[in-house]
């Protein structure tokens, strides 16, 4: 489905990013893996090569504009252009109450989401336009919709991602560039940490979803991204799609157990 396409994936060193990279490799895409951790980034690059894919890894801190622009340029220099941009990377901050979130935490979150997406999309657009169109997939979150506790900075930034997605979709449709977003939940690094720290978390998480299981990055999330990155979604732009086993329907209560209902 992605033969002769060049795709840049940020945060490709694990979790959903790794799952997307592996699926895209199977579909014939040439890949630029942008990842801050050189060990995990190189490891995924080797996996892609073992799958027969063409790939290059570039160490990238998406909080740094020069790094983001360099990743886009690497795609052009290595494979001759860029067709697909997947803005997956995110730098998490401590899970604390909103009143305890610092300006530094907010800045880190905005840099790794809003600014990273802004920089990569602006850098990618001319190259996509030169190739007659392109596909951009950004990452939204169910946390925005439920106002997830301890994620005030993340919720704020991800709400902004939806605005960025729809603004670009509206303006860049004239270049045949589609821009969509997904709100995924999957068994990535955060999920496995929560499982380790909270016995029974995996079972409770699965039970909350109408489909009764937690998502696998490669088998459950990557196919939805593939759809948005392929010609199958050629008449679709400005959309935000939940890929979460139906979790967005019941939602979930994110209030920490130690926080009382009323405080004065």
UniProtKB/TrEMBL annotation:
<comment type="similarity">
    <text>Belongs to the short-chain dehydrogenases/reductases (SDR) family.</text>
</comment>
<dbReference type="InterPro" id="IPR036291">
    <property type="entry name" value="NAD(P)-bd_dom_sf"/>
</dbReference>
<dbReference type="GO" id="GO:0016616">
    <property type="term" value="F:oxidoreductase activity, acting on the CH-OH group of donors, NAD or NADP as acceptor"/>
</dbReference>
<protein>
    <submittedName>
        <fullName>NAD(P)-dependent dehydrogenase (Short-subunit alcohol dehydrogenase family)</fullName>
    </submittedName>
</protein>
<dbReference type="Pfam" id="PF13561">
    <property type="entry name" value="adh_short_C2"/>
</dbReference>
<dbReference type="InterPro" id="IPR002347">
    <property type="entry name" value="SDR_fam"/>
</dbReference>
<dbReference type="InterPro" id="IPR020904">
    <property type="entry name" value="Sc_DH/Rdtase_CS"/>
</dbReference>
């Amino acid at each position: 489905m992605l033969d002769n396409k060049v795709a840049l994936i940020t945060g490709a060193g694990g979790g959903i990013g790794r799952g997307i990279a592996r699926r895209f490799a199977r579909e014939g895409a040439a890949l630029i893996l942008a990842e801050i951790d050189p060990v995990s980034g190189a490891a995924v690059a080797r996996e892609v090569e073992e799958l027969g894919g063409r790939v290059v890894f570039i160490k990238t801190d998406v909080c740094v504009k020069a790094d983001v622009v360099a990743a886009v340029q690497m795609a052009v220099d290595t494979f001759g252009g860029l067709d697909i941009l997947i803005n997956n990377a995110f730098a998490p901050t401590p899970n604390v109450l909103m009143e305890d979130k610092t300006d530094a935490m907010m800045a880190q979150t905005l840099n790794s989401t809003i600014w990273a997406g802004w920089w990569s999309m602006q850098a990618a657009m001319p190259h996509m336009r030169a190739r007659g169109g392109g596909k951009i997939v950004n990452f939204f979150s169910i946390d925005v919709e439920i106002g997830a506790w301890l994620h005030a900075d993340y919720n704020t930034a991800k709400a902004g991602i939806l605005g960025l997605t729809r603004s670009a979709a509206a303006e860049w449709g004239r270049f045949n560039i589609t821009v969509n977003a997904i709100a995924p939940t999957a068994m990535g690094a955060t999920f496995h940490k929560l499982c380790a720290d909270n016995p029974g978390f995996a079972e409770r998480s699965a039970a909350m979803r109408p489909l009764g299981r937690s998502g696998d990055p490669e088998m459950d999330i990557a196919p939805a991204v593939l759809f948005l990155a392929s010609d199958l979604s050629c008449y679709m732009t400005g959309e935000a799609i939940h890929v979460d086993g139906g979790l967005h329907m019941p939602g979930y209560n994110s209030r920490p157990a130690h926080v009382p209902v009323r405080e004065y």
